[in-house]
Amino acid sequence: MAIYECRDCKHEDYVARRFMLHFGPESRCPRCGTARVIKLKERDKIDPINRGLFNWIEWVIGGKIHHCRYCRIQFYDRRPLASALASEAAEKAESQPKPEGPAAQQVTTPPDTANSGA
């Protein structure tokens, strides 16, 4: 959506366009981009629903209704929540076997670099 340039070093930093929020591993709010969204069981009659082509496509292909707590909008998305992805990664890390034997018990410490000055 924008390109920022540092006045001192002339480094450019890019901010992705808004439609890029519809691509990626986890569900994100199409307006503000936060991953802190919740999945609703059914549509809420009070908060507005996000209108647009990508939202319609998500609804057609079977996306579930989500709600952004900051923008207070509802939108359809087929991707899992970020919290679900984090819990899957934690479960996967716990289920991996830990190495056993002398190599697993060996602890490496950095060499001493203290100097007494003498």
Give the structural class.
alpha+beta
Computed over alpha carbons, the radius of gyration is: 23 Å
Estimate the mean pLDDT confidence.
80
Unreliable stretches = none
Helix content: 10-25%
Distance between the termini: 60 Å
- Number of beta strands: 5
Strand order of the largest sheet: 3-4-5
Strand percent estimate? 15-25%
- Tell me the overall shape: flat
Order of helices and strands: EEEHEEHH
Number of helices: 3
How does the major sheet shape up?
3 strands, antiparallel
Short description:
By secondary structure, this protein is of the alpha+beta class. Helix content is 22%, strand content 17%.
Topology:
Elements: E1 2-5, E2 12-15, E3 37-39, H1 53-60, E4 64-68, E5 74-77, H2 82-95, H3 102-105
Antiparallel strand pairs: 1-2, 3-4, 4-5
Explain what you see.
The protein is α+β, with helices and mostly antiparallel strands and 118 residues long. The chain has three helices and five strands; from the N terminus they run βββαββαα. Strands 3-4-5 form a three-stranded antiparallel β-sheet. The protein has a two-stranded antiparallel sheet with strand order 1-2. β1 and β2 (12-15) form a beta hairpin. It is flat, with a radius of gyration of 23 Å. The termini are far apart.
